[in-house]
Amino acid sequence: MTFPQSIKHQQAIKLILQQLEKRVLLSETINLSTAIGRVMDKPVIASVAVPAYDCSRMDGYAVNIDKIQLNDEGKLYAMSLGEPIHAVAQVEPVSCHDQALPIMTGGMMPDDANAIILKEQVEVAHNQIQFKTLPKPGEFIRTTGSDIKKGHVIIKSGQCLNAAHLGLIASIGTAEVNVLKKPRVALMMTGDELVQPGSSCLPGQIFDANTPMLSTLLSKMGCDVFVLTGLADTQEAVSERMALLKQKNFDLMISVGGVSMGDKDWIPSMLAEHGEVIFHKVLIKPGFPMVFGSLHDSLFYGLPGNPVSAYTTLCQYVFPAIQMLKQQKSEKIQWTAQLSHDLDKTHQRREYIRGFYQVDANGQFTVATSVKQQSSHIQVLADANCFVVLEESPQNLKSGSDVLIQPFEQFVP
Q: Which domain holds residue 273?
């Protein structure tokens, strides 16, 4: 079976997104308190008005304008004080008649009141208030439904919920929401040399940096991540794992390592045997040997094993698939920044350089990159906050040149 190899970035993205067009996530109902970052499957319709009654916007005095009279001297308006109204449950209706009722912010308006006089606008003495200016009708009153009208859609389907959305939904008394299930992602490392942090590391072995890094990154992207046991570098082990995974129900499967041209790189050939390879190798740096395909009903990514390559390809190619599954925009956020130094690129591959951007007092974005850009150099990745994106052609960029950057915060909100 033949499949495209050494393809350009845009072709890889197109092939990936084509696989997502008919894939959908099921929905579930969850408690509002756990819904941050989740995507609405159905719209939220207000079952009540907010506020549900006319109430005061400020601390002051509820009055009926028609009952206001000048004092005996004819220079100031005066009203006697009635019982105060607080923002609490009100069982019996309240009327103010010709009195001014002290009312707190959120307090329910008396049924015959039509204005609020602010505290700072009056003088209080001998159980009455005096003031110089008549209030305007409706002033400082929140009317019924002025914030949210009953029956209106307040959250649309497909909305990714933030903290303000949760507050909005709670304001109509809703405790549960219908959201898309999180994408289920299987993550597994390959390599006989890998040792878990906390264990002894012998000569020839390395600590597994990819599992904590990538599993956290996937979780931050909104996935349920299932870390599988590591794979030995044998054809039999990889074949057995592929056969087993075909029986599992994952949206995405991600292996790390074993995708290049080494004697023990079995992922591409075993994926072709048990499933389908859609493409192998992308003209990018780092991450060239990545493989993409499907295994039964799941999409399968074989990422390179070097940590920077794995991180980069996950952000560039797995992230858009996760976004599309969640019915979100698959395009990545890109800004323009000025290089703070010269930068040469001599090869024909698209490159994602690790950089650190800053914003000056005038709002100008500047970005600097490290000299060390090897795909094994995780320190530079840890110190970076963005990718600097350089297109396929060779480039000779001078200090002050405009470049595109992709901020890391979009991947780890």
A: 5-25+182-325
Please, where are the H alpha helices in 347-400? 378-383
Question: Whole-prediction pTM value?
Answer: 0.90
Number of domains the chain contains: 4
Q: At which of 305, 325, 345 does a domain end?
A: 325
CB 310 within 8 A of CB 376: no
Contact 395, 373 (CB under 8 A): no
How do residues 141-161 score in pLDDT, each as one tens digit? 999 999 999 999 999 999 999
pLDDT score at 409: 96
CB 152 within 8 A of CB 158: no
For residues 260 and 314, membership in a common domain is answered with yes
Q: To 10 degrees, the CA torsion angle through 374, 261, 271, 291? A: 30
Which DSSP helix (H) or strand (E) runs through 185?
Answer: strand 184-189
Out of 69-73, 137-141, 172-176, which region has the weakest mean confidence (pLDDT)?
Answer: 69-73
Q: Is residue 16 part of a domain?
A: yes
